[in-house]
Design goal:
Helix content: 25-40%
Bound molecules: zinc ion
Number of strands: 2
Shape: globular
Largest sheet: 2 strands, antiparallel
Structural class: alpha+beta
Number of helices: 2
Mean pLDDT: 84
Radius of gyration: 14 Å
Order of helices and strands: HEEH
Strand content: 15-25%
Distance between the termini: 49 Å
Low-confidence stretches: none
């Protein structure tokens, strides 16, 4: 069984390693599909990221 993701994911925003998170917390990490591949967000940053999206609607959208 080959696992291609042998390296522990790093949070895209704060640079924290998912390997440092507790098993329960590690489950709360979320992935995003970027043009360059998959990027990870730790729970705290994922929450902040959602806030950003909800709080900052792009002007050109209107
Ligand atoms: Zn983070």
């Amino acid at each position: 069984m080959a696992d291609r993701s042998t390296e522990p994911p790093i949070c895209k925003r704060c640079g924290r390693s998912r390997a440092d998170a507790s098993p329960a917390e590690a489950l709360a990490w979320s992935t995003q599909n970027d043009p360059s591949g998959v990027s990870w967000l730790c729970p705290a940053c994922a929450r902040a990221h959602v806030r950003d999206i909800e709080g900052k609607l792009p002007d050109e959208y209107w």
